[in-house]
Structures are given as C-alpha cells and as structure tokens.
Amino acid sequence: EVQLVESGGGLVQPGGSLRLSCVASGFPFSKYVMSWVRRVPGKARVWVSATYPGGSTYYDDSVKGRFTISRDNAKNMVYLQMDSLKPEDTGMYYCLTDQSGVEYTGQGTQVTVSS
C-alpha cells in the first residue's frame, strides 16, 4: 500500500523559510518521480517541484531560485526547502507520486505566509 506522510508546514512571515518533509512507503521509492504540489481552494493545482530518479529536478517558474527539492533514497524521504517565502506561496502542500497513472498523496501540510 502506497503511503505518503507530509510534515513541516506552518505559519511564517514573508521572507522566511520552511522545510517540508515527506516519508514514503509501499513502493520502490528510488525508481519513481516524487513531486510537491500546492492546492488553494478555488485555484488550479500548482505543480511546485519534482525530483526524478536520475537526479534531475523541475520547478515551477514562481518558485525557481527560492525552493530546493531533494530526496534521500536510503530513507524514502523527499524534502522541499522553501526560502524567501511570499504570501502567494500559501496553500496546502502535498507530496505526490504517480503509480502507473494513479496519483497518490498524503494528507498534506499547510503553509501560511503572512505578516
């Protein structure tokens, strides 16, 4: 059974930092793309970042230069270091894996950027 558990969200002032973590289980983690997506009610889902098995990464233009994704295959963990946070980064962040066309996420972790 695929399981993903996110943590690390919170309330932070603009310009601050947070580090999101996701622990995965139930599948061969090192072989799969792992992503972070953001949901805000009433808005389209944003594919924030992704890390590929070969080591390449993807970032949405809105977070390039501010966010860094990484993974630890030995621990089945994926991280999202979020720096220089802006109010528009606010949302629920989910760790996501696509298993043969089926998307799995965890319960999400809320990030709120506000003064």
List the helices and strands and how they pair.
Blueprint lengths: L2 E5 L2 E3 L5 E8 L8 E6 L6 E6 L5 E3 L7 E6 L4 E6 L8 E9 L2 E4 L3 E5 L2
Parallel strand pairs: 2-11
Antiparallel strand pairs: 1-3, 3-8, 4-5, 4-9, 5-6, 7-8, 9-10, 9-11
Could you please describe the fold and organization of this structure?
The protein is mainly β and 115 residues long. It is 0% helix and 53% strand. The chain contains no helices and 11 strands. The protein has strands at 3-7, 10-12, 18-25, 34-39, 46-51, 57-59, 67-72, 77-82, 91-99, 102-105, 109-113. Strands 2, 4, 5, 6, 9, 10 and 11 form a 7-stranded mixed β-sheet that branches. It has a 4-stranded antiparallel β-sheet with strand order 1-3-8-7, with no helix packed on it. It is globular. The mean pLDDT is 97.
Q: What share of residues is helical?
A: under 10%
Give the count of helical stretches. Answer: 0
Whole-number mean pLDDT: 97
Rg, alpha carbons: 13 Å
The coarse overall form would be globular
Strand content: over 45%
Written as H for each helix and E for each strand, in order along the chain, the element string is: EEEEEEEEEEE
The residue ranges in which pLDDT falls below 50 over 5 or more consecutive positions are: none
- Which structural class should the secondary elements be placed in? mainly beta
SS elements, strand count: 11
Oligomer designation: single chain
Largest sheet: 7 strands, mixed
